């Protein structure tokens, strides 16, 4: 690493995030680039990176605004032209409200995108705040829990285990006193070594350092595509009402029979689920071959009924008879999911 040593502070609880960043900057004698300053610009990530060369030699604390994508900052900072290097990524989470934050159905405006209604206008793109919460937890080298003192010990133990499942590579710390300097020193880490829990589970190397009997995980693999109507029914009528326990996070890759030529990215947190294409469609005649790389999904939850969830997912996949019918028959199925915008072809 060369240039300015940067510690990134993220979190969707703005007050707690800012309080921690201020205390950390004072304790480490580093320059602070606060979110209130970065959020006033149209490009907070670019602004932060451009300002970092002016930081003192002791390094800098960058507090990213809630909706600034953490991975975009890390990628920009790692560019050879950048004068900084990220040594630690701290996610500050309010322990009293973290489960509610992960189950929130509120959305935030993330950017303006061109629109054809009317032509030449701009429309607002919204992203679920719960997705930011999950991705920040998953992308951190250290997760700092604040306001944890009001939790009963069993609940705190379960919460630490849940965070550890969502990011098994992160150190989980309890911030002891909000009126003093932060507890402990967040560890330095290569951002490339941080692995989200769902990715680790799909790769067969999910080993969270903290566990609890109430926190469970399921790796679901299935060669057959999902039947769109049955999948939508499962998500709306069974998964969301907590039939299988409280499913906090699920992510991975899937195929829907009516769109079997496209591998989709499954991204679900709490009450919000996004299934979007990862690549351009292939010719229909290749759909059967591609469908053989079907579902590869990771689920994490509280009091998770993994066996029942696995059975329900199997029931949402194509039956023997449906699979034999082939992609032309699949294309005629009712499909309740939103239409996909064409994905950009890789260069």
TrEMBL record:
<dbReference type="Pfam" id="PF07683">
    <property type="entry name" value="CobW_C"/>
</dbReference>
<dbReference type="InterPro" id="IPR011629">
    <property type="entry name" value="CobW-like_C"/>
</dbReference>
<protein>
    <submittedName>
        <fullName>GTP-binding protein</fullName>
    </submittedName>
</protein>
<feature type="domain" description="CobW C-terminal">
    <location>
        <begin position="215"/>
        <end position="317"/>
    </location>
</feature>
<dbReference type="InterPro" id="IPR051927">
    <property type="entry name" value="Zn_Chap_cDPG_Synth"/>
</dbReference>
